[in-house]
Amino acid sequence: MRPRVDLHLVANTLRALDDSAYFDERVHKFTRHFIGAIEHVLASPGKYDDAIETNFAYLCRAVQSYLSGSTNNEIPFEVVFCLTDALRRWRLSDAAIVTSLTEDHNFHLKPLDPWKFIETSIADYDAEGFQLPVVMIGVPRIYAHKPIFCVPLFHELGHFVDLKYRVTQVSAILNPTPIAPAGFDDLTYRMEHFADLFGASFVGRSSIAALEAIAPNAPASITHPATAERAALVDAFLAGTAHPTIDLFQNALAALSLPTLTKVFDLVDVAHDFNDVRTFVPSSIEQVYGMYDSAWAYLFNAIDKRLNPWQLSDRRDGIVEALVNDLTEKSIRNFAIREAWHAAASSP
Amino acid sequence: MLAATSMDRNQSAAPFHVALQILSGERNLPEKLSAYMKTVLLQAIGIVRDPSTINATTLPEAIQLALDLQESTELLNAVELDAKGDNLSPGTAKNILAAERRFAPTR
Smallest CA–CA separation between A188 and chain B, in Å? Predict the structure, then answer.
């Protein structure tokens, strides 16, 4: 299609979406301003260079699919609740997470910054001071309400933080000695290692356990280190062992005046409650993060060993999986509701 | 998490990249985009000359460009020369586009 034709189509779709209830009120404002920017471009034929219109149309098509997946009916609330807190810790509390539910099995990140583009390129659109960085992440539909299986999203969020600040590129400028073998892409190696460490800082070893489950024994590729190498680095980080690759990132973070990579989660054990088929009651958001690792270990232990009460089920893995993921999801939701209640009760 | 996806930079929609596309086509930049490009250029040159100039206010695209410029003295010299004027020449813009990295991890 031609860019201006696509802009018409996207604007119509966004107008319909704006009648939906979004998880985050800021997304409503974002949608309205986005429609405003599109209408401005459509009302100004010939004003903007073809390259600007073409890139804007591409950006609009991408944004549309993520806004569609961010309505209350679609969004994986519990995971987004945690990711939003994680962003806040990386000085990105002004960013909103929008999700696209995908039909494949891959989590992904769309590395685009729509508002930066509008600010610099759609120069005559008056946004009245509005700004909202959006984090566009793709979540497989079958995992959207399976929080234990969403741990790769913390890795993806690590990519977003990296691209936002260019942490790994700064590490390559400050410490150019390659960490990848000769002939392999050093920058993407750094990016994957950083995202692994970022994920592990929030959800502990479950982040790398997910990789080991998806790609056990995967060898090094041009762009990705071997699974064993990635796991070893995460294990060193979690053990507090000094490692030159970790130091590279900490130096880059210091140069950018960003937080350092440190363990955010508190260790918890969900077994006592989950064995009674009760939700776990985290006392802090750090314990919520700790739940992911504990629930991951608990789930696969329950499937493999059929400990109480799971030997009483009809032994189908799916039943155990559904119950453990449900317990985890409801534990997070209960915490989020309690937090919202306390915030409302303490506000004047 | 598993695969680095080759990102088509023609569709990356990053402002600096769009500016390069316009300049390489020998067209003029809008005023705001021109000012943004100039800031990116000057910051990138500064980083190549002295990496300790990287700080919390450095533009992400300047860091990206600095990394590309580090790999080619010829390109760095051309950018430094052009940065003394108002904009990059079409030839330099094309050379930067050609030097941009081909991979960006999205998974």
Answer: 7
